[in-house]
């Protein structure tokens, strides 16, 4: 079985539109899982420069799959113990939820494997 490591990483500016309204951050933070392949998210690391709680949301086919809250001026490292298979043909992307009007920068590192 051939495996391939994938990463969604970067530093992105954001402006919040509401905690209940996750929005895409950047087109770089999306991935289409090829047919015949299984994707698994293994860990998430993130940092938040703003003075408010934010959440990075892992979306699968437009539906929230995992929430990663990051505290005000804080960071988080989440090794995923429960790993779900994301089947081929799925679109995955990272969105961000932040209180309306809050500006900041988020650092993102999502590690995945495909096999």
Which labels suit this protein?
elongated, 0% helix, Molybdopterin oxidoreductase, five-stranded antiparallel β-sheet
What does this structure look like?
The protein has 115 residues and is an all-beta fold. 0% of the residues lie in helices and 65% in strands. It has no helices and ten strands. Strands 1, 4, 7, 8 and 10 form a five-stranded antiparallel beta sheet that branches. Strands 2, 3, 5, 6 and 9 form a five-stranded antiparallel beta sheet that branches. The chain is elongated, with a radius of gyration of 14 Å.
Please outline what is shown here.
It comes from Pseudarthrobacter polychromogenes. The protein has 115 residues and is mainly beta.
User: In one word, what is the shape?
Assistant: elongated
Rg (CA only): 14 Å
Q: Whole-number average pLDDT?
A: 97
> What is the beta-strand fraction?
over 45%
* Beginning-to-end CA distance, first to last residue: 7 Å
User: How many strands in all?
Assistant: 10
Can you count the helices?
A: 0
Instruction: State the major sheet.
Output: 5 strands, antiparallel
Helix content: under 10%
Low-confidence stretches: none
Structural class: mainly beta
Oligomer: single chain
- H/E series: EEEEEEEEEE
